[in-house]
Amino acid sequence: MRGDRCTGGRVDELQQDSGRLGAQDVSVSQYVVAPSVVSHNQFDTRTPLQQVFYWTPDQWEQFTCEWVRMRKDELGYLGVEVLGGTNDRGADVVAFMSDQRLNGVWHCYQCKHYAAELTLDDALPEMIKPFVATLETSRTLPTRYTFVAPRIHPRLKDIVLTPAELKKRFLAYMDGRTRPVAALSAETRDAVCERAARTDFSMFWTVNLDEVLEVYSKSPLFASRFNLPPSGEPAKRIPPPVPGADEARYLQKLLDVYQEKFGAHIATVQDAFEHPSSGQHLGRQRVAFFDAESLRMYARESVPGDAYEELKEDVLTSLIEVAAMDFPTGWERLQTVLTASGQLTLTGTPLLSLFRNSQRKGMCHQLAHDDKLTWCEGGCQ
Asked: What is the phi/psi pair of residue 96, to 5°?
């Protein structure tokens, strides 16, 4: 068996930039559910409507931010941020519509996750905060202020739908002696009332949970957030005519095999394609690699936790023993491992129904790319 390192030609050049593969994997959202939040490979039997009532306020806030981001293009937002905290001044999630951000045109989303329905008595103290913020900071009033809660009392919905009545109730509240009002100085209270009297209260909105879920259900985050079975099929990825840096490592290992079996003159991927024996084989391996990449991308966006990486670990645990057997050539090791991948009995993965022979073979090449599998002993160091 050949023990020296093969010259890789074109692959060696590509391998210098192989780190770009990670740079291309841009996460869909910074709020993807943490693996510790969901039980891997076990789906939730509750509906999304049922699940949200058991969330923490922080989870609800993150969920709201994800929903707002999904509407970013629709509503013309330049950016969406979470400000939730003790000093957020009534602005949990903010969406900017100009470069001036909170000094320009912006929308506010106030997140409330209570066991009971959100009522007008809950909303009125929150409505004071954006007015006070304009007095104590350089913030402008948001042009839209939306209450987002799992349950909203019908009376609050009705009053918000009549801005004139909402303003009347707010000004009456400001004349009372409730704790939020009494906490204000007389000067601040008068200034808030004066500003509120000049404000169009159509800026205040409520949103129904089913509306939020309807938007969210169209996102690849839906299954991950609610730990639901994956739906749909992986988007087919076609190998580019010229291999990129993200293929360099596994292609070099295939070149080692071809050089050993067909001759040292196969020094580059182009040589391998032009060879009558290795050309078609190489084409099939590239298709399989990209089929596996399609499944990896699908799993990342549609399945809770790290299901694909867990599946790779399960596959490696079985195939590493096959690859460790004595083989006279790298070609025989490669072919035996590829065949064994199609015969594996796998359980406990939500990807099982999608893990077909092509993806299984492609995963072998992903493992080779990760230096977990090698076909020729001493090759591709």
From this structure: -95, 140
pLDDT tens sequence across 172-196 = 999 999 999 999 999 999 999 999 9
Closest by Cα among 160, 155, 100 to 127:
160
Write the CB contacts of 127 (distance below 8 Å, at least 6 apart in sequence): 90, 145, 170, 204
Asked if pLDDT for residue 36 goes beyond 90, the answer is no
CB-based contact 322:57 (threshold 8 Å): no
d(CA 61, CA 373): 43
Strand partners, 111: 148
As given in the structure block, the two tokens for residue 159 are 């009053």
Query: Do 105 and 143 contact (CB within 8 A), yes or no?
Result: yes
Residue by residue, DSSP assigns 27-75 as -S-TTPPPGGGS-TT----S-HHHHGGGS-HHHHHHHHHHHHHHTHHHH
pLDDT over threshold 80, residue 284: yes
Q: What is the pLDDT of residues 117-134, one digit of tens each?
A: 999 999 999 999 999 999
Please give the pLDDT value at position 228: 74
**Domains in the chain, ordered, with CATH?**
10-27+231-369 (no CATH), 44-226 (3.40.91)
Q: Report residue 269 as tokens.
A: 């991927």
Q: What are residue 191's phi and psi, to 5 degrees? A: -65, -40
Query: How distant is the alpha carbon of residue 90 from its chain centre?
Result: 27
Better-scored residue on pLDDT, 83 or 240: 240
* CB-side neighbour CA atoms (13 Å) of 372: 18
Question: What's the longest Cα–Cα distance across the chain?
Answer: 92
Distance between CA atoms of 260 and 329, rounded to whole angstroms?
A: 8
Q: What pLDDT does residue 6 have?
A: 40
Q: Using alpha carbons only, what angle is made at residue 330 by residues 327 and 332, rounded to the nearest 5 degrees?
A: 60
